[in-house]
Every structure is written in structure tokens, then in C-alpha cells.
Amino acid sequence: MSEKSVIDEAKQISLAIELITLGARLQVLQTETQISRRRLINLYKEIHGESPPKGMLPFSTDWYVTWLPNIHSSLFYNTYLYLRRNPARSRMQAVVNAYRLYLEQVPLQDDGKPVLTLTRAWMLIRFFESEMMQLSKCTRCAGKFVSHAYTLDQDFVCGICQPPSRAGKTRKAARARARTERSS
Ligand SMILES: [Zn+2]
């Protein structure tokens, strides 16, 4: 094995470790590294102490345009684009760094998880790369938000400028429900 390939392998393992630590599913690792599935499963077990979850990745673009996911996805994607401006940074390093910055900015949900998981963030990048999504500029705040490709967006207003009436009530309702259940 040449020296270059050893370095390359070390880089790939280091990327895999970063991705696994951030919660990536096995399919993400299999797509983005040349490490064998068996070794990836072992790495995953070593880091999380359990086997990686089985099952399909989320394939739908619809999730990203619902209210709260849209705000989180747009925050992540704008950060990613900004980081990609540095040509020295690889695509996956930009994904990892943008995702770390995203985690620093947002509060976790009641279940301790972020709204946008790393796997969803990665899928979003892939959807943009296959031109299934676009950015639409909000006519009020001028922020750029994730939307389906070919959306007619001349009059687009984002979910922050115009939140749906139920926004913010879901969590309160859940807490109230939990209180009622505890007291009964
Ligand atoms: Zn707006």
C-alpha cells in the first residue's frame, strides 16, 4: 500500500468517525467513504455501543418545506453554502462544519434531538445537488429559504415572517398534556 493511500484511508476513517459521532446513518457513510460496510458497522458499534439502525433513509423532499424543518434546513443550507465559498474546504468537510455550527445555534427538542438530523442535512445537500430543491428569497426579510425546485416564488414569504397560527403551540400543548398525565 502506498503512503498516499494510507493518508487517504486515515482521512476517510476520520471523516467516518466525525459523521458517526454526529449521528449519521450507515447509508451516509457508505456513500461518502470507501470504507467497507463491515468496518463501518464496527466503527459505529465502537462509538455508539450498539448496532446502527436499519431501514430506509428519508427520501421525501416534502419534510424540508414544512414550517419548523424549513427554518432549520434553511439555516443549515445557508451556512453550508457560505462554507463552500472556501475552495480549500471539501464538500463533506463543509457538511460537517455547517452541521456543527447549526447544532451550536439551535435548541434541542424535548426528546434531546435536533430538528434537523445529520442524515437529513446530508439528504438535503443531495436533493440540491440533484436539483430537486432551490432557494427562495422571502419578499419581506430577504432571507433565502429551502423550497421545492421550480416553485413559483415571486411572492414567497418565509415561515419566520409569516408563522402558521399553530406554531409554538405544539410544544406547549405537549407540556400541558404531560402535566395532566403526571397529576392524574
Ligand atoms: Zn422572511
Automatic annotation (TrEMBL):
Its main location: cytoplasm. Its cofactor is Zn(2+). InterPro entries: FlhC. Binds 1 zinc ion per subunit. Residues 168-177 have a biased composition (Basic residues). Zn(2+) binds at residues 138, 141, 158, 161. It comes from the Bacteria. Residues 165-184 are annotated as: Disordered. Keywords: Activator, Bacterial flagellum biogenesis, Cell projection, Cilium, Cytoplasm, DNA-binding, Flagellum, Metal-binding, Transcription, Transcription regulation, Zinc. It is found in: Cytoplasm. Heterohexamer composed of two FlhC and four FlhD subunits. Each FlhC binds a FlhD dimer, forming a heterotrimer, and a hexamer assembles by dimerization of two heterotrimers. Functions in complex with FlhD as a master transcriptional regulator that regulates transcription of several flagellar and non-flagellar operons by binding to their promoter region. Activates expression of class 2 flagellar genes, including fliA, which is a flagellum-specific sigma factor that turns on the class 3 genes. Also regulates genes whose products function in a variety of physiological pathways. Belongs to the FlhC family. This is Flagellar transcriptional regulator FlhC. It comes from Salinisphaera aquimarina. The lineage of its organism: Bacteria, Pseudomonadati, Pseudomonadota, Gammaproteobacteria, Salinisphaerales. The gene is flhC.
